[in-house]
Amino acid sequence: MKEVLVIGTGYVGLITGVSLAEIGNKVTCLDVDSNKIEVLKQGKTPIYEPGLEEYLSKNIKENRLSFTTEYKDAVEKSEVIYIAVGTPENEDGSANLTYIYNVVDELKQHINEDKIVVVKSTVPIGTNSKIQNMLSEQPFNVEVISNPEFLREGTAFYDAFNGDRIVIGGESDLAINIIEEINKPFGIEIFKTTRESAEMIKYASNAFLATKISFINEIANICERVGADVQDVSKGMGLDSRIGGKFLNAGIGYGGSCFPKDTKALSHLSKQLDFEPVIIDSVITRNERQKLSLVEKYEKFTQYKDEPIGLLGLSFKPNTDDLREAASLSIIEKLNRMGKKVYAYDPVSGELAQERLGNKVTVLSSAKELLETVNVIFIVTEWDEFKQLNFNPNKQYEIYDGRNILDVDTVPNNSKYYRIGR
How far apart (Å, rounded) are the C-alpha atoms in residues 381 and 312? Predict the structure, then answer.
């Protein structure tokens, strides 16, 4: 068992803290947001993630997990310190490292003995080495390890115990081995490398997955024009073991906190190094265009030009309330510019979206209410409850399915149904 400090209680930090406590470590989670810390002390989570709150409460009760806003005591008693604060996107696409360096400045003031600092945050290549140099200015031996996360929102807590690999990058064999021992109880393959390679593995992995999504969306657009079915094309492609079927589901693009931010950051870094990332830039461009593909279909086919439009789904993916870079935001903005009245329903993120968007959208309390309110429907998020909708048989709908989730047989005969790449 190790005394572990996790700094940052966002998605990555909270999952990291709870999972490390669950495998037997004594974990303190630190955040400068006192309101968030008070919520966590009560065993409640400020984010929606299946399974997380149950294990949060369990580990608090079993005295393996605690929360604080104070650096001094938390840093001094810890053996291993995880940095898991946000690295949001700057206007130019680069990663904003302000929160990272604020943490490092705090650590420099309070480190009282030899420590291992593990960076979970997604940072540009070379950042861990910069942190190492900054922490080497004080008298104690501090080893910095790059340990990027590979969590999927909506299944993040599951992924912590069932991931494909744990990547540990560092220059000290002793520090690498200690972090390896901490992670062994997860039972996941451990891959050891340098700090720079670990940082690049994170960026390259997300860029590649984003590329698969943008690629199949490009193929979907071609399928529509030649009469092919993109779902059959995806299945046929995925049977090739060199390609695989994952991330080949055509739709209206990716969103969230990782793919958009990381592809842009990698592009920005490449250009700083005088290299033009042609593939990555095209992935970003295709994704931004794809978000509005339902609006383009609507403009081409609709018979309800002056009627309101309803969105089923607001979060960027199911099983999360995360609205970051969600296709719904681009769609609502575009529809607002067109002068459209927009209604929406989401099982989890509706209230959050209403607070954020104000009068740009009217959030309803159920899918049934939305189906009764509008004739034009955009399916934006593939929540399970949207796969079996109870349409009013007396209404004639126009359904624009951005995730290809409906069985065509469930669509009323008197309605029109438009899909992606089919």
Answer: 7
